[in-house]
């Protein structure tokens, strides 16, 4: 039976993760879960972000379920670089999978887009690009200061994530992959991405392809999100595009994310895209849907696609039954979802 | 009297630029205009993109009015790097000014946003960051290939564009500047931007400030574009965010852009954000509004704010009077705009 590590984290993290675990237990009884105390609270208490011993322990699990880490009192970059990105890189989670659907029952911000019309997934590269941490500065705090950030891209890293995107597209109905980059300005990295994309596309004559510059893709995600099926892109572009995709499908409150090591050599990590929301933490009013959808991605990755499908269907039932404006209770939503999932 | 260089360019460029000139002539008779043949057509005919002699001649003008350059037959990067970016860098156009308004009469894609509610301007850095052209690759077309792109940021370059943004905000009604970056991941460049921003903000106690990560800003531009007044950001983030801002205010068909050297040491350049649209070129149906709004930015920069205001008001009249779905004729729109502007 699967062994998962649970990092509930800060703010609303513990509240929403509790519901995700409830739903996992309902559809796949017997999953063994171990809690790890990481995030802003631990950092403030002990000064530690992610001790090597904890990293080693996490490595022994099949997957990690994360709620949210962070707090305005922690300096920018500490938990991002020291925890979230450290896990992505240490566990070679090179596929950052972010599905976006405009669910029936959810009102998106776009007047012309109806529920059910948007169903896309962004496959974001997770271990390279501008996230490599290659940069520095000179003459800090003088008029001569210069700061650099370097985007590092390897054929190895680019090709494997494109391959994953094509495999996912081949298993979907529309079978289309859109490559997003900025080949007209970032000519070196852009050329590498474009050539790797063409090479993998040649192995998939059944999958349709297109290319868009990132600025155009950002625009079309707003005006015509329906046109996308699978989008593959680099780390930073994926960060931006997935938040746009979340915004047009009802907000990051509903968005799930998986940082996946497809080979299963290291644990993959699943987390809602939203943050720790300290302003509403502890009140039992956070929507756990994104955490529960992240649990569905986890189940799918661990080889339980039917359990995953039941969780996703439960979310569809829950959202279709909501009355706009009626406040929700985190634990009641979790109870309902667990119930729908086993019904 | 002002001397402007006109680069009509490719596709619909000549059609829309003709209307912009018509409107300039109406509000500021006597502007001397010299045409320069640059773009895809010249590249195909002669192999030349931007000869040094032409660059020298352009430098002798007060401003450049550009229609659109580009064609699918030109390899990516050739005209972008060789012409557009070359001009931005050669003429030290460090302020890329991109206003977005949801005009009365225009239906944006967002259900909750009404015309008149959005009025923001993005001040995008134009001479640094990932656009510096610092990058390369090794072991091309082998499994060992690596490609880099480097973002270069100087205190000099960052501070001057932030200073420009604050000056613009101080002259606007809401007096607010939002810095957009990704300080939690791009810690070196992010720190430089944040410190320069704080330093300039201290000189402007009358201007409100906020900071957002680029992914959050992309999302809020979709869900709450009304919240922005002046946004200052780096070159690549600005590229992406301005297309989102255009999308939520009716599309890049209405979006104007100025690449400005504020000191006037070199000519500034003004152009619609849209491309050359080869599919509709030559039919006289392209909307010249973005080109005409770019002409308004040009007039303002050359010290004719009243002429600029008349052009902007003419556009407002034109857009408010349009009936959705009724096809337009490029030259008729230009005639109407020229008429409104002098009425
Ligand atoms: C918190 C931050 C490091 C992270 C990222 O930029 O990847 C977040 O924005 C995300 O999208 O998961
Ligand atoms: C054509 C390209 C070089 C340019 C840019 O990236 O700056 C365009 O997208 C723009 O926004 O003006």
TrEMBL record, chains A, B:
Tell me its EC number(s), please: 1.1.1.85
Alphabetically, the GO molecular function entries are: 3-isopropylmalate dehydrogenase activity; magnesium ion binding; NAD binding
Q: Which keywords does the record carry?
A: Manganese, Metal-binding, NAD, Oxidoreductase
The Swiss-Prot or TrEMBL record lists the needed cofactor(s) as:
Mn(2+); Mg(2+)
Chain ranges of the Isopropylmalate dehydrogenase-like domain: 3-337
| Protein's name in the database | 3-isopropylmalate dehydrogenase
């Amino acid at each position: 039976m699967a062994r998962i590590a649970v990092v509930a984290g800060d703010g609303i993290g513990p509240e929403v993760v509790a519901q995700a675990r409830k739903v996992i237990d309902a559809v796949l009884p017997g999953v063994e879960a171990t809690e790890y105390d990481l995030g802003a609270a631990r950092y403030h208490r002990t000064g530690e972000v992610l001790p090597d011993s904890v990293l080693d322990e996490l490595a022994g699990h099949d997957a990690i379920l994360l709620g949210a880490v962070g707090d305005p009192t922690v300096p920018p970059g500490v938990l991002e670089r020291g925890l979230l990105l450290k896990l992505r890189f240490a566990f070679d989670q090179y596929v950052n999978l972010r599905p976006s659907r405009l669910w029936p029952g959810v009102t998106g911000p776009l007047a012309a887009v109806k529920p059910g019309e948007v169903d896309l997934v962004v496959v974001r590269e997770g271990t390279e690009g501008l996230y490599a941490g290659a940069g520095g500065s000179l003459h800090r705090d003088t008029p001569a200061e210069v700061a650099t950030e370097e985007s590092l891209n390897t054929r190895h890293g680019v090709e494997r994530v494109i391959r994953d995107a094509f495999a996912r597209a081949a298993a979907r109905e529309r079978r289309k992959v859109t490559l997003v980059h900025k080949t007209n300005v970032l000519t070196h990295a852009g050329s590498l991405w474009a050539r790797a994309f063409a090479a993998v596309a040649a192995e998939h004559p059944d999958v349709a392809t297109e290319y868009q510059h990132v600025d155009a893709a950002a625009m079309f995600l707003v005006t015509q999100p329906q046109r996308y099926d699978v989008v593959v892109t680099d780390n930073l572009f994926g960060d931006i595009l997935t938040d746009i995709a979340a915004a047009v499908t009802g907000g990051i409150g509903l968005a799930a994310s998986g940082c996946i090591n497809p080979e299963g050599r290291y644990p993959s990590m699943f987390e809602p895209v939203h943050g720790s929301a300290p302003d509403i933490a502890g009140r039992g009013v956070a929507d756990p849907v994104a955490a529960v959808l992240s649990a569905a991605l986890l189940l799918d990755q661990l080889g339980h696609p039917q359990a995953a499908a039941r969780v996703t269907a439960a979310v569809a039932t829950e959202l279709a039954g909501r009355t706009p404006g009626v406040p929700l209770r985190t634990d009641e939503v979790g109870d309902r979802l667990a119930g729908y999932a086993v019904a």
